[in-house]
Amino acid sequence: MHIKTSAKAVKADLLVLPVYKTKKLNVSGLTKSHELEAQQAFARKIFKGDIGETLILHNHKDSKALYKTVALLGLGEEKDFNLHKAKEAGSKIASVASASKSSTVAVSNPKQDYGVWMAFAGYLNSYKFTRYLSKKEGVALNSITVVGENKNSSKLAKDLTNTKNAMFYTRDLVNTTSNEIGPKAMVEKAKKLAKQTKSRITVLNRKQLEKMGMGSILAVGQGSKDGPYMVTIEYKNSPEKGQKPIAIIGKGLTFDTGGINLKPTGHIETMKQDKAGACTALGILKYLHETGYKGHVIFAIGIAENLIGSGAIRPGDIIKAYNGKTIEITNTDAEGRMVLADTIAYTQKKYSPSHIISLSTLTGAAIIALGSDITALLSTDKKLTLAVLETAEEVDEPTWELPMYEDYCKKTKGTVSDLLNFSKSIRAGTIMGGAFLREFTSGTPLAHLDMGGTGWTDEGKPCYPSGATGVNIMLVAKTISKL
Ligand SMILES: [Zn+2]
Hints:
By secondary structure, this protein is α/β, with parallel strands linked by helices. It has helices at 32-43, 83-90, 92-99, 114-126, 153-175, 183-196, 206-212, 215-221, 276-291, 336-351, 365-370, 382-395, 406-409, 429-438, 473-480; strands spanning 3-6, 12-19, 54-57, 67-74, 104-108, 143-147, 200-204, 229-237, 246-256, 295-306, 318-320, 326-328, 355-360, 375-379, 399-401, 419-420, 446-450, 456-457, 467-468. Strand 14 (375-379), helix 12 (382-395) and strand 15 (399-401) form a beta-alpha-beta unit. The two termini are 31 Å apart. Zinc ion binds at residues 256, 258, 333, 335-336.
């Protein structure tokens, strides 16, 4: 499933012709009969060229024809067309291919390298999670070829193919249910990828975590027989001499009941997604390996299962984290930051990274603040912030910075403990998550990406069918090359 490019027309089941919204329909490369058909549809306003609008033209009967089906795909007004619109329109390639039972697609390039992004979007939207279906239906999309190259097309096509593969890997992991991927199984997945990417892996189990005084991650996992674990994977490919590594940290809650502060019906059903941060980190590792990224990157993931039961932590319990700070657990559902706290402190101490980027489905408050399309960024370093936000625009993965407002941040302090894991009086929950994590970095620049709203979609949206999204792989992988 590669994105291919070609300067000349190629044979395919389906040809997709992108068209801008204009007064006069302008299509080329069609047979006379198809052109007539398209012009009639346009004249009758059946097809107007609005963004994402599609029109499937009748099939060729001639078996020697280059295409079995031709479809017009609207791009909207040419003056408004940009990367975001290209992806929105391109994602429709999946549904047109599926409706016309096409496994090979050619799409003509509208301008610059947008055709490659459209092919990428088409693939992203063609993803189906069929692992638990006894009968798999439909025609699988096998290839998309962008016709009409510019000089960057083939390089971009390779890069976006690798991105797509990493995103599908992450989606598969996140979508796999918690009875199949518990903490131990998650460790096995990490081991497998470490082997594939020729990276060194270290796994700390419960006993070792106890010995090392990692009271924060242990507290979260103590209600489950399985786990917790802390996994670090070291990716090293001819790094520059004397350069410190970059750390990418992921939250891997294989299931989150909320603990004794139990999540209600309507919120608990999709909590297998609470491992999305860790799965995204692994997706980034896969991408870096496949693209031959040169550098030194530490991947650290905290893995646990937040269950209820006689062993589980109670609201009001006070524990001691790896860095010696005590935490009062004011809410057992604010467990992600506790897993990350020890993971960050341990990684910081062991590897002295230059930067830490953490990925997690940390707060539901991120949905209230930014909805389900925009990832929240909390950062302790201006340069790092700029690198993340600039990359977010370049790859069209919307990200917005929330402030580390000091008057809020100081409310993470407790009265009978050093810290509170949840500060009820401050309703800016996403900011408080970032403020808490900052306590464990020992001053190392931190960019914390809260994908509580963006890691998962119930209904699906352009590029992201329902389920795990795989966002932030591209964002982080491209950001680190700027640091
Ligand atoms: Zn939780």
